[in-house]
Amino acid sequence: MLESRLIEVETKLAYQENTMQILNEVVARQQRQIDQLQALCKQLLERVRNSGEPGFVNTPADEVPPHY
Predict the structure, then answer these.
(1) What is the pTM of this model?
(2) Cα angle value 63/58/37 (rounded, 5°)
(3) Phi, psi for 50 (deg, rounded to 5)
(4) 1 lies in a domain?
(5) Dist. CA 12–CA 18, nearest whole Å
(6) How many other C-beta atoms lie within 10 A of the C-beta of residue 18?
C-alpha cells in the first residue's frame, strides 16, 4: 500500500514538473513578445513625433478632458 501511494505521488510530481516547464516556456515567449511590442511602440512614437507633419501636432482638442 505504501509503495503504491509513493508511486502515485511521484507520478503526480512528474506531471507537475512537466506542466511547470511548459508554463515557464509560455511565459518566457510572452515576455519576449511584450518586449518586442514595446520596442515597436517606442519606434512608432518617435516616428510620429519626428514626422513634422501638421496632422501629428498635439492640439488642445487632442487632449483628454480632466474628468476622464
Answers:
(1) 0.61
(2) 85
(3) -95, 5
(4) no
(5) 10
(6) 10
Q: How many domains does the chain have?
A: 1
Backbone angles phi, psi at 63, to 5 degrees: -80, 150
* pLDDT for position 67: 79
What is the domain extent for residue 33?
17-41
CA–CA dist 46, 37 (Å, integer)? 14
Q: Which amino acid is at 3?
A: E
Give domain status of residue 49, yes or no.
no
Residue with cell 515567449: 29
pLDDT tens digit at each of 68 positions of the chain: 999 999 999 999 999 999 999 999 999 999 999 999 999 999 999 998 888 766 555 666 667 777 76
- For residue 31, tell me if it sits in a domain: yes
Note whether residue 28 is domain-resident. Answer: yes
